[in-house]
Specification:
The complex is a heterotrimer. Chain A is of the alpha/beta class. Chain A contains ten helices and ten strands. Chain A has a six-stranded mixed β-sheet with strand order 6-7-8-3-9-10, sandwiched between helices. In chain A, strands 2-1-4-5 form a four-stranded antiparallel β-sheet. In chain A, helix 4 packs across helix 5 and helix 5 packs across helix 6. Chain B has a domain of about 130 residues: P-loop containing nucleotide triphosphate hydrolases (Rossmann fold, 3-Layer(aba) Sandwich), CATH 3.40.50.300. Chain B has nine helices and nine strands. In chain B, helix 3 crosses helix 4. Chain B is globular, with a radius of gyration of 19 Å. Chain C is α/β, with parallel strands linked by helices. In chain C, about 30% of the residues lie in helices and about 15% in strands. Chain C has a seven-stranded mixed β-sheet. In chain C, strands 7-6-10 form a three-stranded antiparallel β-sheet. Chain C has a two-stranded antiparallel ribbon with strand order 11-12. In chain C, helix 3 links the parallel strand 2 and strand 3. Chain C is globular and about 70 Å long. Classes of the chains: A alpha/beta, B alpha/beta, C alpha/beta. At the A-B interface, helix 7, strand 10, helix 9 and helix 10 of A face strand 1 and helix 2 of B.
């Protein structure tokens, strides 16, 4: 039996800010179609790790091999910037906590979704618009809002638009940084549903950073618990949340599931 | 030659360490030994609180196993659940090991039909075929047709449980764990579940269940394992040892 | 110091063409680099000029760096030779470099322009210098200079089409009518300064060297002679040149770029050539033709 190669293989990722560490010695593998959640309190290093993984930040040491569409695994940190940026706008997505970090607020919803298509050379206005429209419907934004700017949208709509903008090029890996943070509970539930549905339909691989264990439970297959820059516990999401081993994880679980 | 048992559990032990309560150790079970047989239903017996559910959860990979092994026949290989990689566990859950819990994990906006069809779709069954099979099961379980297209969040306990059962029974997992699937059902529907379990047995599925209802246990159990036999010997000692910590 | 500029009416204390020789050399180096990398914005140490930013300080510095005593200079402002900006820049070089000036496109060796390319085709012994306010075509969509430089460097120009997409979505057609982005020599996307898109096709395979100077933004860029300059567009919304429904009210020519002129308070207006030199030439031709016709009629 041939062993499946991981989509992303992170080895000993460390990031130091001077003598202070952001994250230390983190290794894991992500396979195609898997959703992995990185949880922990703010300041635990989860966002630093996410930024290192997505090459938005260069780590102090470590390597990440990413399996390209051609079946070859390459070290992301040795790629040229051009290659990495190409990867970022085609094969990857990045959903920011604050939609205005991931959207062009002064450009219409349609153009926000269409930008990646134009960036990879799509030059037919009609088909760009049609694709944008399909994606807006898919993320439950009414078609007649296609020419409106996202600054006229509600928080939930903006976040859904950001997701559509990322998924339009059919990426295989999506990074999410607290995608439901700052949203009302009901809006959050709707967004989670939507993400869950898209994950099932598209077979996306996702690395999601969240401090909300309920979000991790609903979306992820696996979980990594971070504390002070290190992964202190990892495993199947339901196993880690139902039978946490580390004192810190037990604290985290007991503080959240109290309600 | 006898075929390999689909699930062999040897010397399984489990305790919880409560770090928030001064490192209190609560032993659950010790040296659990039994194995399942294809086409047979094994039932875990004993008083409540003895660790029956914990055993099911350990076998499903939901609780960590402290010691011992649980070998499951997964396709051509035998895998030890006690030290399996998460990814492998997910694959086992998908293909080999099914689980019907007491409660349905509802996903807010997805219809009952789609919730039950999902595992089939994952196995590559077309949506049309999957929906037909779900409808058959719903009819069998007397779930009113007007509910089929609604999300089950607002269903009654019994209705939710029937959706849950349908989801657990629709796939062809060779090993099936049942955690009180009949708890909130009326007599008529319990009987339906009993028949469904019988059918699984005929298909050669190895079942392991917890049933509080004496009648059901009698009618489906091929073997009853008394979990009291695996109660930790030092349980009383352990508790007294930690009494101070507990009080503080 | 240049001894030639020693006598009488010219200002003794100024160097030839105002800028000192070191500065001119610095600008020339930037120009050479710009010519070597068509469409690429070369930074240069823009100097304070004796005129405010926005009045063509970039173009003036480029002109000052390349002008010689033998040159004949023409200055265009919105197509016209007789508007303030054109008059003062022409006077500036007449005074500081004592060069000949002209209003006729064909007679000029060096043409500095704001907002227009002459209607008359340029030749390979001419240089066209553009005054540029904002050289960065990506600026209005991406405010970060570090990011736009990276985008140019990596040829990431999807954003340029986002702008055109927005135009079509809002107006049903590409409504950008000036500063219409072009791709130069198949590589760099360039802002052709605020010339009307009507003039874009003239830049393509132009015989003359085209130089662009942005004083405030401190950038110089160039299109060498005979270079491909393609206006960006969509397959289903191709680039189109502005068309005028009526001919010039003065010279009657069709196919030239026209300005709207309001005649009175009652809203009467007419459309006339924006290129005044071209218009005058056409008018002379028209008069000649009329004269010929009259002559022929008289003798027949």
């Amino acid at each position: 039996m041939t062993r499946e190669l991981p989509l992303l293989d992170a080895q000993s990722i460390s990031k130091f800010y001077g003598s202070r560490s952001g994250c230390e010695e983190i290794s894991f593998q992500l396979f195609s179609g898997e959703v992995i959640a990185i949880v922990g309190e703010s300041g635990s290093g989860k966002t630093t790790l996410l930024n290192c993984l997505s090459t938005r930040l260069m780590p102090t040491s470590g390597s990440i091999h990413y399996l390209g569409r051609d079946g070859v695994a390459r070290n992301l940190y040795q790629m040229s910037e051009a290659e990495r940026r190409f990867l970022m706008r085609t094969d990857w997505g990045f959903v920011h906590q604050n939609p205005s970090d991931g959207l062009r607020m002064a450009v219409s919803a349609g153009a926000n979704v269409g930008e990646r298509l134009m960036a990879v050379g799509e030059r037919h206005y009609g088909s760009i618009r049609q694709t944008a429209q399909n994606w807006l419907e898919r993320v439950e934004i009414l078609a007649d809002r296609i020419d409106d700017e996202p600054r006229t949208f509600s928080g939930g709509m903006r976040q859904r638009l950001q997701i559509a903008r990322n998924l339009v090029t059919a990426p295989r890996l999506v990074f999410m940084d607290e995608p439901t943070g700052g949203l009302d509970v009901s809006v959050q539930a709707r967004l989670l549903d939507l993400i869950k549905g898209l994950v099932n339909d598209l077979g996306l691989s996702i690395i999601i950073v969240t401090h909300d264990l309920a979000v991790a439970r609903l979306l992820s297959d696996r979980i990594m618990v971070m504390k002070e820059g290190r992964v202190i516990e990892a495993g199947l999401t339901d196993c880690v949340l139902d039978d946490p081993q580390q004192p810190y994880t037990q604290l985290l679980v007991s503080s959240i599931l109290k309600g | 030659m006898r075929a390999v048992s689909p699930f062999i559990i040897s010397n399984l032990s489990k305790s919880f360490t409560m770090h928030l309560r001064g490192g209190l150790i609560i032993p659950v079970v010790e040296r659990v030994n039994f194995s399942l047989e294809a086409g047979k239903c094994t039932v875990l017996g004993g008083p409540s609180g003895i660790g029956k559910s914990s055993i099911l959860k350990m076998l499903y990979g939901n609780y960590k196993i402290d010691a011992g092994s649980a070998l499951i026949k997964h396709g051509q290989e035998q895998v030890n659940i006690a030290c399996v990689e998460p990814r492998k566990m997910l694959e086992i859950r998908k293909k080999t090991l099914g689980y019907v819990s007491q409660f349905l994990q509802t996903v807010p906006r997805i219809s009952a039909l789609d919730i039950v069809a999902e595992p089939l779709l994952q196995h590559g069954v077309t949506q049309k075929t999957a929906h037909e099979r779900v409808k058959e099961l719903f009819t069998l379980l007397n779930l009113p047709e007007k509910l089929w297209h609604l999300p089950p969040a607002t269903f009654s306990g019994g209705e939710q449980q029937r959706v849950n059962i349908a989801r657990g029974f629709i796939t062809a997992h060779p090993v099936l764990l049942l955690d009180e699937p009949t708890a909130s059902l009326d007599t008529k529907n319990r009987q339906v579940v009993v028949e469904m379990i019988e059918k699984k047995k005929q298909e050669g599925v190895a079942l392991l269940g917890i049933f509080h209802d004496e009648d059901i246990r009698q009618s489906i159990a091929d073997k009853i394992i008394d979990v009291s036999d695996f109660a930790p010997l030092d349980i009383v000692k352990g508790r007294s040892k930690n009494e101070d910590g507990q009080a503080a | 110091m240049n001894d030639e500029v020693g006598d009488g009416e010219v200002l003794a204390s100024y160097n030839f063409a105002y800028l000192d020789e070191q500065t001119k050399r610095m600008i020339r180096r930037a120009i050479l680099k710009a010519i070597a990398i068509p469409g690429y914005q070369v930074p240069f140490a823009s100097r304070e000029m004796p005129m405010p930013y926005g009045w063509g300080t970039g173009g003036v510095q480029v002109t000052a760096a390349i002008i010689g005593p033998e040159d004949t200079l023409k200055v265009i402002d919105q197509g016209a030779d007789d508007t303030t900006n054109a008059v003062s820049i022409r006077a500036f070089f007449a005074k500081t470099a004592r060069v000949k000036t002209t209003m006729q496109t064909g007679k000029a060796t060096l043409i500095q322009t704001r907002h227009r390319i002459p209607e008359e085709a340029l030749t390979n012994d001419q240089i066209l210098v553009y005054q540029v306010p904002i050289p960065e075509p990506l600026r209005f969509l991406e405010p970060r200079e570090t990011e736009t430089r990276k985008m140019h460097g990596l040829e990431e120009y999807g954003l340029m089409h986002v702008k055109l997409y927005e135009d079509i979505a809002k107006n049903g057609h590409i409504a950008t009518t000036y500063a219409y982005p072009v791709k130069v020599a198949g590589r760099y996307v360039m802002d052709p300064s605020p010339t009307p898109k009507f003039d874009n096709p003239k830049m393509n395979q132009c015989e003359a060297l085209q130089l662009f100077g942005a004083g405030r933004e401190k950038r110089i860029y160039a299109v060498p002679p005979y270079t491909n300059v393609v206006s960006l567009d969509f397959e289903d919304h191709p680039f189109e040149v502005t068309k005028f429904e009526e001919p010039c009210a003065l010279c009657g020519s069709e196919g030239a770029y026209l300005d709207e002129v309001i005649l009175d308070d009652k809203g009467h207006k007419m459309f006339v050539c924006s290129d005044t030199d071209y218009c005058e030439k056409q008018q002379r031709k028209k008069m000649q033709n009329l004269g010929e016709e009259a002559k022929q009629r008289a003798f027949s």
